[in-house]
Amino acid sequence: MTTDxxxxxxxxxxxxxxxxxxxxxxxxxxDHWHEIIGDPTIADVILDRLxxxxxxxxxxxxxxxxxxxxxxxLDAVSTT
Length: 80
Prior knowledge:
Blueprint lengths: L2 H14 L16 H5 L2 H12 L12 H16 L1
């Protein structure tokens, strides 16, 4: 993240902390967020606001895109 992006995310998390729900979706595991955020101090603050009171849903199974691609290939084969 750039400095401006880190600052903006931190500002959003600070404004929302304790006031309402925030939904974050990511394909990147939480244990890699520090390296993506970049600044360890800001990452700690952001993750503190997000992770410690979070309800996490970890989805398992095949990607919906992969399943759809397989179905399209099957449909193309069956119509030819």
